[in-house]
Amino acid sequence: MPRSKGKKSSAPVTIHDVAERAGVAISSISRVLSGHPDVSERMRIKVQKAADELGYEPDFFAQSLRSGATKTIGFIIRDISNPFFGVIAQCCEQELRKAGYSMLLMNSDGDVATESTNIAQLRRRKIDGLIASLVSEDIPELNSTLEKLNAPVVLLDREVVGLNSSAILANHHQGVEDATLDLISRGHNRIAFISGSTRVYTTRDRLKGFKSAFKKAGVAYPTDLVSLGKFDAEFGESETKRLFTLKDRPTALLSGGIGSTAGAMRGLKKLGLVPGKDLAFVAIDEWPMFDVYGQQFSSVYRDAAMIGREAAAALLEMISGGSPRTIMVETHYIVRDSSAGGLKVKKK
């Protein structure tokens, strides 16, 4: 029975109802709803008006069966509470939404097993693509696991050898090298460096920049002050307290990432040490909570919003048949008050 205009019905509105209301063939409705290019603007408006009047909602599951595309993108991050990843996810989702895709966000908690479960769940959902910040790059069978998705993959700050994927990498080397050279020029040679595991590109590239700065400056590399393990606050706090209670303690600190920085700040507070006064302090990545401390903190900055947009663009390009590519995002050392602590600036 035809639906009368304005009359509500408990039965779901079908494509047949829309065709009847618009007075066009069902095939025309299908072309309009699928975004077919060979549809006139007049027809598109007519069909959309009928669909809106009836409250028609497309059956995306049925559409995916017909087209083979779910219009869904998976997004896996290691720590959903990290504001840096929050900005990346937000900007990425905005770009994907413009292209007609929904984004399914999953959190691995930095755990390999959880990440594996995330990937398996996304595979069952038949996603059209994946954007991921992996826990590690050298997990056995990682390549085959990702390849089973049968979908394009974009990695965030990760390099997986042999995987046919795009990657958005930050030039950590340059930013960390610049920061370290600045600290050395101020008279520091006991500089502590805290970061995550070398099983990921992020730490390896930062460490290269840290080492190269000492080599360029002709200063002995402080092996005993380098602590690598996890990106979380617990590790950052415990290592900060350990390093800054050494007999020959550091006079400066570079903390690798927002988690490490949060922990480092907590550790320094418990020791009664003030960044910018008792030590020079440089954070890698901008931490929103810095404003609470009432001082300006130096940082190695990378544009999270740009990373999110570039990741979405790279994935959409691959979905459209484009080739995988690597995009390098620059980092910048921003000098603020906290770089001045610990030692007096050398006169030039």
Features of the shown structure:
Rossmann fold; 12 strands; 3 domains; DNA-binding; 348 residues; Peripla_BP_I; six-stranded mixed sheet; repressor; 434 Repressor (Amino-terminal Domain); Peripla_BP/Lac1_sug-bd_dom; 42% helix; 17% strand; six-stranded parallel sheet; Lambda_DNA-bd_dom_sf; alpha/beta
Write the layout of secondary structure elements.
Elements: H1 15-22, H2 26-33, H3 41-54, H4 60-67, E1 72-77, H5 83-98, E2 102-107, H6 112-124, E3 129-132, H7 142-147, E4 153-156, E5 166-171, H8 172-185, E6 191-196, H9 201-217, E7 226-229, H10 233-243, E8 252-256, H11 258-271, E9 280-284, E10 298-301, H12 304-319, E11 326-330, E12 332-334
Parallel strand pairs: 1-2, 1-3, 3-4, 4-5, 5-11, 6-7, 6-8, 8-9, 9-10
Antiparallel strand pairs: 10-12
Helix pairs in contact: 1-2, 1-3, 2-3, 5-12, 8-9, 10-11
In words, what does this structure look like?
- Pfam families: LacI (PF00356), Peripla_BP_1 (PF00532).
- Keywords: DNA-binding, Repressor, Transcription, Transcription regulation.
- One of its GO terms (molecular function) is transcription cis-regulatory region binding.
- InterPro entries: HTH_LacI, Lambda_DNA-bd_dom_sf, Peripla_BP/Lac1_sug-bd_dom, Peripla_BP_I.
- With about 350 residues, the protein is of the alpha/beta class.
- It folds into three domains: about 15-60, Orthogonal Bundle (434 Repressor (Amino-terminal Domain)); about 70-170 and about 305-330, Rossmann fold (3-Layer(aba) Sandwich), CATH 3.40.50; about 170-300 and about 330-340, Response regulator (Rossmann fold, 3-Layer(aba) Sandwich), CATH 3.40.50.2300.
- Helices cover about 40% and strands about 15% of the residues.
- The protein has twelve helices and twelve strands.
- Helix 2 (about 25-35) crosses helix 3 (about 40-55), helix 8 packs parallel to helix 9 and helix 10 packs across helix 11 (about 260-270).
- The N and C termini lie far apart (about 90 Å).
